[in-house]
Specification:
Shape: globular
Radius of gyration: 16 Å
Number of strands: 6
Mean pLDDT: 83
Strand content: 15-25%
Order of helices and strands: HEEHEEEEHHH
Oligomer: single chain
Number of helices: 5
Helix content: 25-40%
Largest sheet: 6 strands, mixed
Length: 198
């Protein structure tokens, strides 16, 4: 009983800290979301599962910067995963978008990917950075699957989805998901995007 209460208090404290950080970031006009590749999600009923750092519309452009053809293919698959999900997302790759996707080997960083947005409303833009070093280290023989799952997850932030939604349902946005099996938006994710964008 004591462990349950301690765990609940810890979860509440984490949520309060996370919400305070999010409010401070939004007040500053930016938002950063780290994907750490660990189990942080919990169970419970759904609540407003918006990160507050997504694009103002489900239709936007993005460009790849400094990546090879392998990474471009993984990112294009991630875009396609959203296009075919039924969420109404239209994410086009162009050469002149303010939104960027890049990948690099960040050996001293523990994150798998990083989503950062700046400004708000129609001036909002974002950068997604994939950490090829950590993805290769943690994925074993499943680098392609982990990279696609992670890139699709990051685009979920651009569609206003937050990490670790409070649901028992399967979600691409949960850090503890099986990245080999869950590479595409799940029905819960699709329903949340539709709900937020109307």
């Amino acid at each position: 009983m004591g462990n349950t209460q301690t765990g609940e208090r810890t979860a509440v404290r984490r949520r309060h800290v996370r919400d305070a950080v999010r409010r401070a970031a939004l007040a500053a006009g930016s938002c950063t979301v780290l994907v750490m590749g660990m189990v942080l999600g919990g169970a419970g009923t759904a609540e407003a599962d918006s990160c507050g750092c997504g694009m103002p519309s489900r239709s936007f452009t993005v460009k790849t910067v400094g990546v090879n053809s392998w990474w471009t293919a993984q990112f294009d698959t991630a875009r396609s995963n959203w296009h075919t999900s039924g969420a109404g997302a239209k994410i086009r790759r162009t050469t002149d978008s303010p939104n960027k996707f890049t990948a690099g080997s960040y050996e001293n960083e523990g994150w798998l990917a990083l989503y950062t947005s700046k400004n708000s409303g129609s001036r909002r833009h974002f950068t997604i950075k994939a950490n090829s070093y950590q993805l290769a280290r943690k994925s074993g023989t499943h680098m392609r699957e982990w990279s696609r799952s992670t890139a699709t997850h990051e685009l979920g932030h651009a569609l206003n989805l937050k990490d670790n939604p409070r649901t028992r349902k399967a979600s691409l946005m949960k850090h503890g998901r099986d990245r080999v099996r869950i590479q595409k938006p799940q029905p819960y994710d699709v329903a949340e995007v539709k709900r937020m964008y109307g």
